[in-house]
Sequence to fold (361 residues):
Amino acid sequence: MASIIKGKNPDRPYTVRYRADGKQREKSFRTQQEAKDFRTAVEYDIRSGSFTDPKASKGNFGQACETYIERLAVGSERSRESYRSTYRKHVAPALGGRTLGSVAADRDAVSELLCVTMARLSISPRRQARMIITGTVTEAVKAGILPRHRLDGIELADGPSGDDAGETFDAALFPSLAQVQQIADSAGIAAWLMRACGLRIAEALAVEKSDFLMGGKLLRVSRQATRDGKSAVPCKKRKSTRDFRTVPVPAYLWAMVRDLPDGVLTPGNADRKYQQYGAVAGRFATAAKRAGVDTSVTPHWLRHAYASELLAAGVPVGDVSEWMGHKDIRTTHSVYRSMMPEAPVRAASVLDDSYRAWHAA
Fold:
């Protein structure tokens, strides 16, 4: 049984002395009531077998998260890196410096992070953040480091979804059209399909010449290449290739395509119809570095540059959202809202004007 003794410390005169795990322990309090409450709690934990060393709960929460992620059973190293990224960007700044015990007991702070601070992000990083946080404290409970936690059942409201949601970029780092040309010389015309039509890289790799309609004025986007390049599947968030979108094509892009042979514009080798995602991304990175593009820029930034240029010129956000294949216009608004003035203009004309200005220079 625990007992309360009165010590000589004027700041914390009431000390609870108890025995657990074969060791004599004690903890001091400012008031007698605090000491009584602690004695009741510690006696219950000892009887129920849920007692844990209070010092253990003072371990760093951030370090525990990193350990949890490294032990997490995921399908690939790429998936694990996605969890690491979510932790670094969102969880660590808010909770990484706190103790395990304080986070496990602070439901309000965790809810604030997941439901307010991260509210504009897509559901995927929010689910990852919740899994990292609750998984870390649950493992600590199983290991006997914590007696319990208060983080179960935190609901996540629906929000923007899609591959662009939650991403951040610095428009000042967008590759110039001259740099896009240098990249395309190595990575293929897929680079121009992304920059001129806003396609995802997997969609660009699946484009065939027959997908251009009305004499090259429109592009039908209905499928994306699988990562291994062996087949094509419906576009992201689409159930069938019959669920397609139609994108305006600037004249300069059609001029690049018009004389190409029929079939896939960036064909693969003998056993692959399409080029592999990883191979093209690798050539992009090498060519971008050689062209002087910032190393943080990925192929997806060409899609960001497409949307940013159109919205900055006043093209309605609803049109841009449709052309980019966003199922929810909130995704477009969330990512590109700083690029949206009022007066609309024709999209292909905007893209042609910028190309002509570069070409003339």
Q: What stands out?
A: The radius of gyration is 28 Å. Residues 123-142 form the longest helix (20 residues). The chain has 15 helices and eight strands. Strands lie at 3-6, 14-20, 23-29, 212-213, 218-221, 223-225, 232-234, 245-248.
